[in-house]
């Protein structure tokens, strides 16, 4: 009976559930051992583990030795969880010490037995050797998506579909020297609204649309005998046929286009349009972005909130990756900001100086979710601002007040005031602010998010020059890197005793945890420091991780990317669930509402964040 219970226990642990019953039976024949509270089971850097340990009862503490011999706790593991796996498989010393936190009964699977089973089961072995953590992420991601999947049978799973599957006909093309009149007749005959212009080798050169015929031919009274090359639009934006539709939508939004070329193995396969997405899905983020850009009434901008929620629900619940969803949300938000600023400027008149409205933090990294929290700043022209401080302050105070009202109506959190005076500076002022941060006796100062700044409205060149200069100053200063690392380490992942998370014990969010501040931000801040250390100029966390992996050999990059993608997915789905129940959107998560596997994956992600922070602390000690 005991062996059967152990086999059931092992079958619930990933990836051992992939094993046949006889293999599970072999593993379950292992011995049980008892470790009283306080017993040291494995030692960091000690002898390699000779067993895979599976906890049947009790809790163990995993820790590292920190500065001055202090213990740095990484995790607490309980029933159904394992330890010692990496040391068994690799033959290396344990990476962490393991101590019985409370009396524990543990199954000891001998190394020889485990390796023999893995040798006979290469799929299981591959998953373990590649990354035990990534296996958890993959399973939990699928489980989380199924949990929040749309139950409607009327929706096509569009955003889990490759772009190439939307192509309904062979592409219609015309040579560049064909006349405008002949090209127009071809479009009428084929019943199409656009025509791809190609060269002699059928390589796409440009595109002619109905709009081009109206605006460039009819309106300008152009001779219809001219060749198509004189009115075609270039350059062409293309997407691979295997790319998900969510990626295609984001490309259309970024380039403000209706048509997108689809290629396969570098050959032109066809075209998809915004209409394809609208017909199949009933809504389109690209249409929403265009509508925002054309809105001429500040009051009407508030209507974008509900439409954005609907678009995000479809994107998320039908398979779009979290980074695609956050990209769409950020793009629509940037459009809204630009349009609001243009309309407010029409009211207020020309500004006293040239300036740029800047997005920092999540928005600057294009990582916004439905809980849109903006950190706004302004970079003003230094020379023009001299002698005009009074007018500059008054103008931007009024502008910030009106912008804050618009954002609040749209459900966007931007603080009060929306743009505080200390975030209105010249480039020299922002650099001096960084100097003040270095000189300050404490870890406070300017938010690290200024290193993620991007222009929402105004002169982008000045902002990018400032951002790169600040980044290079940080990269060249060990003192600044140490201060930035100290700030990053103030947000610790929420691990606690006996398989519980650190949650808010009272108040409005009793027994909940802030998934962004406690889960995602530790990764974001640590990756930012590592990127600054190597002078990586990318803003987005995914791009920084890619550079750290490809150019600097960060071995945890894949695991961190997967963990962040899972946490963002969980965050977005939790926000959608709150909307479904008529609740206000935020970043709070109740761990009790998660499945067992989701909770375990969450713990694994938090443990990984702790490991990344410990690496940071060792590289930049206080």
How would you describe what is shown here?
This protein is of the alpha+beta class. The protein has 4 domains: 2-120, Jelly Rolls (Sandwich), CATH 2.60.120.10; 162-280, Roll (CBS-domain), CATH 3.10.580; 348-476, no CATH class; 486-619, Four Helix Bundle (Hemerythrin (Met), subunit A) (Up-down Bundle). Helix content is 48%, strand content 15%. The chain has 22 helices and 20 strands. It has a 4-stranded antiparallel sheet. Strands 2-7-4-5 form a 4-stranded antiparallel sheet. Helix 20 packs antiparallel against helix 21. The longest helix is centred in the middle third of the chain and has 27 residues, at 322-348. It is globular. The model is unreliable at 150-157 (pLDDT under 50).
In brief, what are we looking at here?
The chain is α+β, with helices and mostly antiparallel strands. Helix content is 48%, strand content 15%.
- Describe the global form: globular
Helix count from the secondary structure assignment: 22
- Taking all Cα atoms into account, the compactness measure Rg is 28 Å
Strand content: 15-25%
- Give the class from helix and strand content and strand pairing: alpha+beta
Span between N and C termini? 55 Å
Number of domains: 4
Number of beta-strand segments = 20
Question: Remind me, CATH topology of the largest domain?
Answer: Four Helix Bundle (Hemerythrin (Met), subunit A)
Largest sheet: 4 strands, antiparallel
The CATH class of the largest domain is identified as: Mainly Alpha
């Amino acid at each position: 009976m005991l062996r059967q219970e152990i086999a059931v226990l092992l079958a619930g642990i990933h990836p051992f559930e992939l094993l046949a019953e006889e293999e599970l039976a072999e593993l379950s024949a292992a011995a049980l051992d008892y470790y009283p509270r306080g017993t040291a089971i494995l030692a960091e850097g000690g002898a390699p583990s000779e067993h895979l340990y599976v906890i049947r009862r009790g809790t163990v503490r995993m820790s590292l030795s920190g500065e001055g011999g202090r213990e740095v706790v990484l995790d607490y593991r309980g029933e159904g969880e394992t330890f010692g796996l990496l040391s068994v498989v690799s033959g290396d010393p344990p990476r962490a010490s393991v101590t019985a936190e409370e009396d524990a009964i543990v199954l000891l699977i001998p190394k020889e037995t485990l390796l023999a089973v893995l040798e006979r089961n290469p799929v299981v072995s591959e998953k373990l050797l590649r990354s035990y953590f990534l296996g958890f992420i993959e399973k939990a991601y699928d489980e989380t998506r199924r949990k929040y999947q749309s139950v409607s049978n009327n929706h096509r799973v569009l955003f889990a579909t490759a772009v190439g599957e939307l192509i309904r006909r062979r592409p219609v093309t015309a040579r560049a020297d064909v006349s405008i009149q002949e090209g127009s007749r071809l479009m009428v005959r084929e019943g199409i609204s656009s025509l791809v212009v190609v060269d002699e080798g059928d390589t796409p050169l440009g595109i002619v649309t109905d709009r081009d015929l109206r605006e460039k031919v009819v309106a300008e009274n152009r001779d219809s005998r001219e060749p198509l090359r004189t009115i075609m639009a270039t350059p062409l934006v293309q997407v691979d046929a295997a790319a998900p539709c969510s990626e295609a939508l984001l490309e259309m939004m970024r380039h403000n286009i209706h048509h997108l070329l689809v290629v396969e193995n570098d050959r032109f396969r066809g075209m998809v349009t915004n209409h394809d997405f609208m017909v199949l899905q009933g809504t389109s983020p690209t249409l929403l972005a265009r509508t925002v850009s054309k809105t001429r009434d500040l009051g009407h901008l508030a209507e974008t909130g509900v439409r954005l929620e609907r678009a995000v629900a479809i994107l998320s619940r039908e398979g779009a990756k979290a980074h695609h969803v956050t990209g769409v949300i950020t793009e629509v938000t940037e459009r809204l900001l630009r349009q609001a600023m243009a309309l407010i400027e029409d009211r207020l008149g020309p500004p006293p100086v040239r300036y740029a409205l800047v997005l920092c933090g999540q928005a600057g990294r294009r990582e916004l979710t439905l809980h849109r929290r903006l950190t706004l700043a302004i970079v003003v022209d230094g020379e023009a601002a001299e002698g005009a401080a009074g007018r500059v302050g008054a103008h931007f105070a009024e502008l910030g007040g009106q912008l804050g009202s618009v954002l609040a109506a749209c459900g966007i959190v931007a603080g009060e005031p929306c743009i505080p005076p200390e975030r209105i500076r010249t480039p020299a002022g922002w650099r001096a602010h960084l100097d003040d941060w270095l000189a300050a006796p404490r870890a406070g100062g300017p938010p690290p998010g200024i290193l993620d700044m991007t222009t929402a409205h105004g002169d982008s060149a000045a902002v990018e020059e400032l951002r790169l200069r600040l980044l290079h100053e940080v990269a060249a200063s060990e003192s600044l890197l140490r201060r930035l690392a100290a700030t990053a380490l103030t947000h610790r992942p929420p691990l606690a005793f006996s398989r519980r998370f650190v949650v808010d014990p009272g108040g409005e969010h009793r027994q909940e945890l802030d998934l962004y501040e406690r889960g995602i931000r530790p990764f974001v801040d640590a990756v930012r420091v590592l990127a600054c250390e190597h002078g990586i100029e990318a803003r987005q966390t995914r791009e920084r991780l890619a550079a750290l992996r490809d150019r600097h050999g960060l071995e945890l990059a894949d695991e961190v990317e997967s963990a962040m993608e899972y946490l963002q997915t969980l965050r977005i789905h939790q926000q959608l669930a709150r909307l479904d129940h008529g609740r206000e959107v935020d970043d709070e998560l109740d761990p009790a509402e998660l499945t067992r596997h989701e909770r375990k994956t969450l713990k694994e992600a938090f443990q990984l964040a702790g490991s990344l922070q410990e690496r940071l602390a060792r590289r930049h000690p206080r």
